């Protein structure tokens, strides 16, 4: 079956702009989580959506937002981009919200802010 | 709060050497524990997991045992291959609260032929 698909794979944006990243989870998966990966901070949790509702949120400013659609596809948006937002953004899908449920990751979107 | 600490990298070994990557965690209750692997240019892949104390996760020759008494989940492999070169992440999901993955900082492993 198809894996987690993230688009686009690469993005270059200018400071102050906004960006939208997309994630299509594995068919039948209802939970989508987003993570930011940087060399300095490692992998940090942004937020999780389950059945179109944001269930959990990490410690990021309000410039980072997201949503989930009825088909479980998710988007995250970053407004007023800063240089420090340059990172690999990873999306993970899970079948349900249980703690033991395996998370499947996409290949990520590499965002560069110049 | 919940946290994961991994041994500092990078780690460089020769092919067929024995591998250990140390991982310890801080969490209340009984978290689930995971090892993920990231190959160059790729996302994360689950390598193995353990969901309760004394469980042993294993996959592709890698093993890790959930040790509650030492709050550890060390990754081991008896004989590494060049294809094992990657970045390895130890992670947990807490028993209570937000069902998110909390990751260690990652350990870059390079295997030389």
List the helices and strands and how they pair.
The complex is a heterodimer of chains A (114) and B (113).
Chain A (H helix, E strand, L loop, with lengths): L4 E3 L2 E4 L5 E6 L6 E8 L3 E9 L2 E5 L6 E5 L5 E5 L8 E8 L9 E2 L3 E5 L1
Parallel strand pairs in A: 2-11
Antiparallel strand pairs in A: 1-3, 3-8, 4-5, 4-9, 5-6, 7-8, 9-10, 9-11
Chain B lengths: L2 E4 L4 E4 L4 E3 L1 E4 L5 E7 L5 E7 L5 E4 L2 E4 L9 E3 L8 E8 L8 E2 L3 E6 L1
Q: Which band does the percent of strand residues of chain B land in?
A: over 45%
Determine the structural class of chain B based on helices, strands and strand pairing. mainly beta
Mean pLDDT of chain A: 94
N- and C-termini, Cα separation of chain A: 37 Å
Largest beta-sheet characterization of chain B: 6 strands, mixed
- Total number of helices of chain A: 0
Low-confidence stretches of chain A: none
- Annotation, overall tally of beta strands of chain A: 11
Oligomerization status of the protein chains: heterodimer
Q: How large a portion of the residues of chain A is in β-strands, by DSSP E?
A: over 45%
How helical, in percent, are the residues of chain B?
under 10%
Radius of gyration of chain B, whole Å? 14 Å
């Amino acid at each position: 079956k198809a894996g987690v698909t993230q688009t686009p794979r690469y993005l270059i944006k200018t400071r102050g702009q906004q960006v939208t990243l997309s994630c299509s989870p594995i068919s039948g998966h209802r939970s989508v989580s987003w993570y930011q990966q940087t060399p300095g901070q490692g992998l940090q949790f942004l937020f999780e959506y389950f059945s179109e509702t944001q269930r959990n949120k990490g410690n990021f400013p309000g410039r980072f937002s997201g949503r989930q659609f009825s088909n479980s596809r998710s988007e995250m948006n970053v407004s007023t981009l800063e240089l420090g937002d340059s990172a690999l953004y990873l999306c993970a899908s899970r079948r349900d919200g249980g703690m033991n449920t395996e998370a499947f990751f996409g290949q990520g979107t590499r965002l560069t802010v110049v | 709060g919940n946290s994961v600490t991994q041994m500092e990298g990078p780690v460089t070994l020769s092919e067929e050497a024995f591998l250990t990557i140390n991982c310890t965690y801080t969490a209340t209750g009984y978290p689930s524990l995971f090892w993920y692997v990231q190959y160059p240019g790729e996302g994360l892949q689950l390598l193995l997991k353990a969901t309760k104390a004394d469980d042993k996760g294993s996959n592709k020759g890698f093993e890790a045992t959930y040790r509650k008494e030492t709050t550890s989940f060390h990754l081991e492999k008896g004989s590494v291959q060049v294809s094992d070169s990657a970045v390895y992440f130890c992670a947990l999901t807490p028993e209570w609260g937000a069902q998110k993955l909390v990751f260690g900082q990652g350990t870059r492993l390079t295997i030389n032929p």
